[in-house]
Specification:
By secondary structure, the chain is an alpha/beta fold. Helices cover 29% and strands 29% of the residues. The strands form three sheets. Strands 3, 5, 6, 7, 8, 15 and 16 form a seven-stranded mixed beta sheet that branches. A six-stranded parallel beta sheet has the order 11-10-9-12-13-14, with helices on both faces. The chain has a three-stranded antiparallel beta sheet with strand order 2-1-4. Bound molecules: NADP nicotinamide-adenine-dinucleotide phosphate (NAP).
Length: 331
């Protein structure tokens, strides 16, 4: 094991938050029972906000950024984990209140890891990452409501992004007719169709002030955008349909009416991946390993070195990244 290792750290300097690559030692890591040799992390929208300085994600400084990690247990004082175990961690406040995954080593609480599901490599687990695991939580929310492919088309908003592209792949693989809303029709049409989208919808068709009720179009919706887009999606959801809301890429507000709820019985399901219970996480990861098309996953994802990460923060917040970015923390 190396005495020193690299990490992306946010720290305070002269009243400003600076984010950069730093050399750390094990004594810089928190005093938690499970030491993980991290192999991969990912770039999610929230990571973009943190490393670009455009959102206040790190609540304490200094903080190692990165909301996801996948790696191998190096040592553990908790009997649930043994050296050599391959594990994945998403959320739980990593990069917010606890040190995160942009580091070659990390110490974590024994309650947090999910065992790498059979059929996935550590790298594939981070191609999925929080974005893909959230997409599965959304799909499971639609299914919990009773949604079936025969009920009608489902809408995915922000479809070319991380959550969106995995949601398109999962839903089409399960037999749903997927309509994909994107602001990048011209450049991403082939990509989204290759993931199984049956139809593309221009972002502007939804990102506008909607009427309280519009033409009933969707049996279910996965929304990653929020604001006017979520309001329009609700106004177009069919009687007793269901909308899983997980994102705010278009804004955090919800400027709409209660009409879809009280006149069409539409259900709005909130999705929180960060503090989801351990059984819910395990079920989502198990299902991802079982159902996600690994050729799609390969097409969705790109791998970058940790040293290249800092340039990418603004790009994901500006909606310029397609699919998923895996971060190789050892490069
Ligand atoms: N609830 C949770 O636990 C949870 C977990 C993960 C992510 N999230 C949230 O889900 C959202 C998506 O995350 P992600 O990692 O998939 O991010 P991402 O890769 O950046 O994808 C977001 C997509 O939204 C669309 N978009 C961007 N700006 C927009 C705007 N102003 N108006 C309308 N659409 C816009 C773009 O898709 P097109 O180019 O196709 O239009 C973009 O690719 C983020 O808000 C993130 O914070 C929440």
């Amino acid at each position: 094991m190396q005495n020193t290792f690299n990490a992306i750290v946010a720290e305070e300097s002269e009243g400003k938050t600076l984010i950069g690559l730093k050399e750390l030692g094990l004594s810089d890591l928190p005093d938690e029972p499970v030491l993980v040799a991290v192999k991969y992390s990912t770039l999610n929208y929230k990571d973009g906000l943190a490393i670009s300085g455009r959102g206040r994600i790190c609540r304490a400084l200094p903080m190692i950024c990165g909301i996801d990690l996948a790696g191998v247990v190096e040592s553990s004082s908790d009997s649930r984990w043994q050296p050599g175990d391959e594990i994945v961690i998403n959320g739980y406040g990593l990069s917010e209140t606890f040190n995160g995954g942009y580091s070659q080593y990390q110490r974590v609480k024994a309650d947090w890891p999910v065992r790498l599901p059979k059929g996935l490599t550590l790298k594939q687990s981070m191609a999925i990452g929080t974005a893909g695991y959230t997409a599965m939580l959304c799909v499971q929310a639609l299914e919990d409501h009773g949604l079936k492919p025969a009920d009608g088309p489902v809408l995915v908003t922000g479809a070319a992004g991380g959550v969106g592209s995995v949601a398109v792949s999962l839903l089409s693989g399960l037999g749903y007719e997927v309509h994909a809303s994107t602001g990048r029709m011209a450049s991403q049409e082939q990509f989204l169709k290759s993931l199984g989208a049956a139809k593309l919808i221009a972002r502007e068709a939804l990102a506008r002030k909607a009427k309280p009720l519009e033409k009933e179009s969707w049996a279910g919706v996965v929304d990653t955008v929020g604001s006017n887009t979520l309001v329009a999606a609700l106004a177009q959801t069919r009687h007793e349909g269901v909308v899983a809301a997980c994102g705010l890429a278009g804004g955090m507000d919800l400027p709409g009416s209660v009409a879809p709820f009280i006149l069409r019985g539409v259900t709005l399901r909130g999705i929180d991946s960060v503090m989801a219970s351990q059984p819910r996480r395990e079920a989502a990861w198990h299902r991802l390993a079982e159902t996600l098309d690994l050729d799609h996953l390969e097409a969705i994802s790109n791998t970058i070195a940790m040293t290249a990460l800092l340039e990418m923060g603004h790009k994901i917040v500006d909606g310029e990244i397609r699919g998923r970015v895996v971060v190789d923390v050892n490069r």
